[in-house]
């Protein structure tokens, strides 16, 4: 892999901090000088990076001031030119997520009640791994991140000890993977996802099955909203 030049490093730095919520939507970006000093470089590559991100719509230029953070635009997967438009693919994604929402929320509740100590260790490990992988999203390495997140969900299903839930999850791997992929690709920030995962783990640690159910339900509701038209 080629090393990044100064402008590319600044672009990655800004994107990552938007994704993790440090640079909030509708807030001003730190000054060119502050970013340049952080990397011990001149302001020129910082300005170049900002200009590129403004053209991409991630930042909005403001005369005589720092740009405003716009965030990552939600791309419409289902525009008029989409080949699957006539096959109601949008409805399919929403319906598949609704089914997962009901099953995984109940599975989370059961896992909190039924998981063995070994299963709890696996759930915690996959949770921590999914968080560790998040910074790769800013480098375009989405697959590594959603694979880790997918494993977190799978371990919860297995720990539910419900054979119907486990079999269901085994039968729809491609659907689950596509849900995960687009859930990452078309969100403005990863902050909400991290918050939901944190709440799920708090529920496991406190053995609060109701909190586990609602946290997983709200987590998947957040993904569903990415597929809904405004």
In short:
The protein has 230 residues and is mainly α. Helices cover 66% and strands 2% of the residues. It has 2 domains: 64 residues, Arc Repressor Mutant, subunit A; 138 residues, GntR ligand-binding domain-like (Four Helix Bundle (Hemerythrin (Met), subunit A), Up-down Bundle), CATH 1.20.120.
Description:
The chain has about 230 residues and is mostly helical. About 65% of the residues lie in helices and about 0% in strands. It has 2 domains: about 5-70, Orthogonal Bundle (Arc Repressor Mutant, subunit A); about 90-225, Up-down Bundle (Four Helix Bundle (Hemerythrin (Met), subunit A)), CATH 1.20.120. The protein contains 10 helices and 2 strands; from the N terminus they run αααββααααααα. A two-stranded antiparallel sheet has the order 1-2. A hairpin with a 7-residue loop joins strand 1 (about 60) and strand 2. The chain is elongated, with a radius of gyration of 20 Å. The two termini are about 40 Å apart. Pfam families: FCD (PF07729), GntR (PF00392). This is Transcriptional regulator, GntR family. Keywords: DNA-binding, Transcription, Transcription regulation.
């Amino acid at each position: 892999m080629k090393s990044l030049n100064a402008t590319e490093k600044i672009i990655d730095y800004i994107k990552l901090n938007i994704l993790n919520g440090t640079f909030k939507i509708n807030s001003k970006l730190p000054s060119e000088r502050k970013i340049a000093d952080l990397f011990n470089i001149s302001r020129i590559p910082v300005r170049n990076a900002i200009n590129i991100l403004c053209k991409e719509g991630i930042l909005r230029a403001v005369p005589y001031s720092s740009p405003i953070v716009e965030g990552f635009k939600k791309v419409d997967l289902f525009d008029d030119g989409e080949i699957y438009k006539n096959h109601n693919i949008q409805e399919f994604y929403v319906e598949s997520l609704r089914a997962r929402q009901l099953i995984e929320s109940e599975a989370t509740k059961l896992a909190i009640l039924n998981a063995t100590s070994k299963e709890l260790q696996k759930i915690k490990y996959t949770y921590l791994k999914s968080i560790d992988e998040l910074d790769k999203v800013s480098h375009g390495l989405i697959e590594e991140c959603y694979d880790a997140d997918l494993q977190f969900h799978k371990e919860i299903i297995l720990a539910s000890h419900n054979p119907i839930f486990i079999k269901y999850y085994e039968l729809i791997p491609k659907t689950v993977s596509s849900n995960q992929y687009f859930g990452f690709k078309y969100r403005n920030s990863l902050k909400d996802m991290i918050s939901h995962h944190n709440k799920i783990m708090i529920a496991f640690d406190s053995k609060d099955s109701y909190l586990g159910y609602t946290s997983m339900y709200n987590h998947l509701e957040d993904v569903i909203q990415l597929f809904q038209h405004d």
